[in-house]
Amino acid sequence: MRVVVLTKRQYTNRDVIDDRYGRLWEIPLGLAREGHEVTCVCLSYRKKGAGQETYEDAQGHAIRWISVNLGSFLVFGFFKYLYVANKIIREESPDVIWSCSDTFYNVLGYYFARLYKCRSVADLYDNFESFASYRVPGLRALFRKAVRDSDGVSCVGERLRNHVVAAYGREKPTSVITNAVDTSVFRSMDKARCRERLGLPQDIVLVGSAGAMHSYRGADIMFRASTGSPTELTDVHFAIAGSRPAGTPIPQTDTIHDLGLLPFAEVPMLLNSLDLAVVYNRKSSFGEFCFPQKFYEILSCRVPMVAADVGEISLLLKDYPHLLYDDEDVGSFVSATKRQLEHRQLPELDIPTWHDQALLLQQLMDSTPAES
Questions:
Q1: Same domain, 56 and 16
Q2: What is the number of alpha carbons within 13 Å of residue 91 lying toward its C-beta?
Q3: CATH number of 285's domain
Q4: H-type helices in the chain, by residue range?
Q5: Distance from the CA of 209 to the CA of which of 10, 151, 309, 313 falls in 20 to 30 A?
Q6: Beta partners for residue 67, in sequence order
Q7: Which residues pair with 65 in a beta bridge?
Q8: 268 with 291, same domain?
Q9: What's the CA angle centered on 260, arms 258 and 265, to 5 degrees?
Q10: pTM, whole model, 2 decimals?
Q11: Residue 372 lies in a domain
Q12: DSSP letter at 233?
């Protein structure tokens, strides 16, 4: 099967090609490892080396990446991407276009598939209704039509799938393909050695997380707990890493160890440095449907966790309600943290691999006949 992937290059503050990161890297590579011909055409919002490069893994499975820079003249950059994507699809005559990462790409994938009479599968790794592009005049209607009428849709979670079916009137195949984890990267490591590598104290209880330190995503629950009554979380420090926007102040105290934006390779070391990891989130149009990548990363590192009782995580931890906290209630967070620091329970859940998810996408693609 020949597959063309349309996507942006940067997401979740990582570069798909440079960092070889996440869903947009791993699932196309998984398809290539199943013997499919995969070409990815991506738009870079930062100045990067444009052009073509082929990645080949140790077993000789290859995937071709073609990158286009958006540049300073945004309209010109978008039209250049359209030209390159159209050229590649015309030359490759793909069986399927998998469109990912934002509303714009889902729309492109759908209309290119209609033009070149191939199958279109739209990927929703978040609720794109919460993205800024959804508010662009005219794009909202085009996006909803693309999602409703694409031959297949892959959703990051069950709640998002149910929302798409109900709100968009979708009747064609719609599959849940969650995020996953590379268990060779995210694995259990020696805590003392990880703390030493990152310059973290050895003789203190460390709670923390790695990810976008956004208040609207609920990261501030840790900071609010750290500056509360000293009787709440006595002798507990917080270790954090990730991007942070303006308006998300991080208290400058001795009990918060801020590692900034860590290289991806060091994130497993931070997780393994912790006595307890936090999967924070907040109820919103984004939070109710997202799938926090860190959830499976923490599980794979065998680190105890607490998690916000929001969205997909509520379903996954339905048999572990004592690990959940109310996303708006610092007292609930403190109580859950104290329980877990005492009991250190690890949920017994299956951890999907990216290869598993690539196989699910392959099944979805095989089950979606193109419109005549």
A1: yes
A2: 7
A3: 3.40.50.2000
A4: 16-19, 22-33, 74-92, 103-116, 139-149, 158-168, 191-198, 220-226, 267-273, 294-300, 311-316, 330-343, 354-366
A5: 10
A6: 42, 51
A7: 40, 53
A8: yes
A9: 115
A10: 0.87
A11: no
A12: S
Alpha carbon separation from 169 to 112, 144, 166, 206 (Å, rounded): 22, 10, 6, 47
The single-letter DSSP state of residue 273 is: H
Whether residue 13 is found in the same domain as residue 76: yes
Partners of 99 in the β-ladder: 6, 122
Q: Where are the alpha helices (DSSP H) in 171-263?
A: 191-198, 220-226
Q: Are residues 118 and 264 in the same domain?
A: no
Distance CA 110, CA 103 (A): 11
Which structure tokens are listed for 243? 């991007």
User: Sign of the CA dihedral 279, 281, 285, 286?
Assistant: negative
- For 226, the token pair is 């750290």
Spell out the per-residue pLDDT of the chain, length 372, in tens: 999 999 999 987 788 998 888 899 999 999 999 999 999 999 999 888 888 899 998 889 999 999 999 887 788 888 999 999 999 999 999 999 999 999 999 999 999 999 999 999 999 999 999 888 888 888 999 999 999 999 999 999 999 999 999 999 999 999 999 999 988 899 999 999 999 999 999 999 999 999 888 888 889 899 888 766 555 777 899 999 988 876 667 888 888 999 988 988 899 999 999 999 999 999 988 888 888 889 999 999 999 999 999 999 999 999 999 999 999 999 999 999 999 999 999 999 999 999 999 999 999 999 877 554
Same domain, 219 and 156: no
Give, as one character, the DSSP assignment of residue 156.
S
> Phi and psi (nearest 5°) for 27?
-70, -45
**At how many degrees (to 10) do helices 103-116 and 139-149 cross?**
60
CB 153 within 8 A of CB 172: yes
Same domain, 100 and 118: yes
Count Cα atoms within 13 angstroms, Cβ side, for 194.
Answer: 20
Shared domain check, 86 and 207: no
Domain range spanning residue 225?
Answer: 191-343
The answer to whether residues 230 and 271 belong to one domain is yes
Give the number of domains in the chain.
Answer: 2
